[in-house]
Design goal:
Blueprint: H1 7-15, H2 50-53, H3 60-80, E1 82-86, E2 100-105, E3 129-134, E4 137-148, E5 153-157, E6 160-163, E7 166-167, H4 182-185, H5 199-205, E8 209-210, E9 213-215, E10 220-224, H6 234-237, E11 240-241, E12 245-255, H7 278-283, E13 293-294
Antiparallel strand pairs: 1-2, 2-12, 3-4, 3-12, 4-10, 5-6, 5-9, 6-7, 8-9, 10-11, 12-13
């Protein structure tokens, strides 16, 4: 009986037989391409401006719009801030002359409202030049100087003003030659002897006269012209109510050369001269030295 060699035993040596070494597989690295230079980004489109969104062609419509805006601004300024006036008489000579054109500040004496903390509102004071609605004819504007404020005691002696018993220094006042007039120069007059004064005012005035002095009541102002001998003022028609005062002059923005002061006849003379040229006549029609002069 023959012995069989187990297949597993014979096969065992084969399992432990040396295996041929395999070379490790080499991984090929990917081929790198040359880098290209960075390309600049295209600029972003700008947002369209309002004018580009709604283009308004320059033409009659745009011209009319600009003109209306300008007119609205001018109307606002001349209604609420300043107002031009022209001096027609010599009652404020020499401070103001006939032909002076004024810009009047309408804010200072306006009634103080919600903007009183910001705008320079104040009440008129003695010495202020004021523009007001004439009490006898409210649509008419008049310009005078405040001489008496509420609570002041006034009287005039030989034309000079005394306030609260003391003479007032008035470098702006002019006393041109005139016929003596006691009603004008020694105010308040005890008797009515001047036909040019308002008789009703003279009767009311007697209630405000105490010991020869005029007591200025509340909310009233006594005004005179700087040309004392040629001015129709509070001596002849009475007080100015506070509500009538419009403003105060700022400056003279132009001045035409017109007669001012006393009209004395010119004396003949034999002085020789040359005829002025055309351009000299154009330049002499105005008082250029008074343009942009501040009014005090």
């Amino acid at each position: 009986m023959t012995r069989r060699t187990p297949i597993l035993a014979a096969a065992a040596p084969l399992a432990h037989a040396p295996q041929p070494e395999l070379e490790p597989a080499t991984r090929k690295s990917p081929q790198t391409l040359p880098e290209s230079p960075p390309q600049p980004h295209p600029p972003l489109p700008e947002a369209p401006t309002p004018a580009a969104r709604n283009p308004l062609p320059y033409g009659p419509l745009q011209t009319m719009t600009s003109t209306l805006r300008f007119l609205v601004g001018i109307i606002f300024v001349f209604t609420f801030i300043v107002q031009p006036f022209r001096i027609p008489s010599t009652s404020m000579y020499p401070t103001l002359k006939v032909g002076d054109f004024l810009l009047v500040n309408k804010i200072t004496f306006a009634p103080a409202g919600h903007w009183s903390w910001l705008l320079p509102y104040r009440a008129p004071r003695d010495g202020d030049i004021v523009i007001f609605h004439f009490p006898e004819n409210p649509p008419e504007y008049v310009i005078k100087r405040v001489i008496g404020s509420p609570g002041d005691y006034l009287h005039l002696h030989h034309g000079f003003v005394f306030r609260d018993g003391h003479q007032v220094s008035e470098p702006y006042a002019a006393y041109l030659p005139a016929v003596p007039d006691r009603f004008r120069d020694d105010f308040p007059a005890v008797t009515y002897n001047y036909p040019g004064a308002d008789y009703h005012w003279w009767l009311r005035m007697q209630h405000y006269v105490h010991h020869g002095q005029l007591d200025v009541p509340a909310r009233r102002y006594f005004v005179l012209g700087d040309n004392r001998n040629d001015s129709r003022d509070s001596r002849y028609w009475g007080f100015v109510p506070r509500r009538n005062i419009v403003g105060r002059p700022l400056l003279i923005y132009f001045s035409l050369r017109e007669p001012s002061g006393p009209a004395f006849p010119a004396l003949p003379n034999d002085k020789l001269g040359q005829k002025t040229g055309y351009f000299a006549g154009l330049l002499n029609f105005a008082r250029w030295n008074r343009v942009f002069q501040i009014v005090h």
